[in-house]
Write a structure and sequence with these properties.
Length: about 180
């Protein structure tokens, strides 16, 4: 694709997987998992959620999260997503959990922090923002299994003030039954 010629699937010499190889210049287009960064922000015991204004899962609630950009750290990316999706500033962000999503070749790095001044506002990517108590979380209207798992783990562990980083493999599709393999703490 650098020279504009079509690519074919083949196993390059010394490799053990099929790759997209250019028929014109032999350039190998490696495709690897993408990193997604996001955050769970708390304000006076409530958690910030955003109602998605874009597909996929338009109209469903999510935690602020998105693909990392080049030349930023995971923490910077999580803070950027909070601002882009909810006009939210965060304090004391720390890594909360790492989730593998092998079905779609993504790795999520979810941070935990405090929502500064309790302020958040919807913008182009978001229909609505809200601060939810545990009893108010719209569990049936969450956009992605990774959001459900992050919130579930948060409420299980919120009274333990340690700084463990959790990890799990999330195997379920949105809307299907949860299929999560948690790794030992
Ligand atoms: Zn080429």
């Amino acid at each position: 694709m650098l020279c504009g010629q079509p690519v074919v699937l083949q196993i390059p010499e010394g490799d053990n997987r099929q790759r997209k190889v250019c028929t014109g210049c032999d350039h190998i287009h490696y495709e690897n998992p993408k990193n997604v960064v996001g955050c769970l922000l708390e304000w006076r015991g409530k958690v910030l959620l955003c109602k998605r204004a874009i597909e996929p899962q338009l109209g469903y609630w999510t935690l602020p999260a998105g693909f990392m950009e080049n030349e930023e750290s995971t923490l910077e990316g999580a803070a950027r997503e909070a601002y882009e999706e909810a006009t939210a500033q965060c304090d004391d962000l720390r890594l909360f959990a790492v989730y593998n999503l092998p079905r779609i070749s993504q790795v999520y790095l979810m941070f935990y922090g405090r929502l500064r001044d309790g302020f958040a506002e919807a913008n182009e990517e978001t229909l609505e923002v809200g601060l939810f108590d545990e009893s108010e979380i719209p569990w049936d209207e969450l956009a992605f299994p990774v959001v459900t798992e992050t919130l579930t783990r948060f409420y299980e562990m919120r009274d333990q003030r340690d700084r463990r980083v959790y990890s799990a493999d999330i195997l379920s599709k949105p809307g299907a039954a949860m299929d999560v393999v948690r790794h030992p703490d």
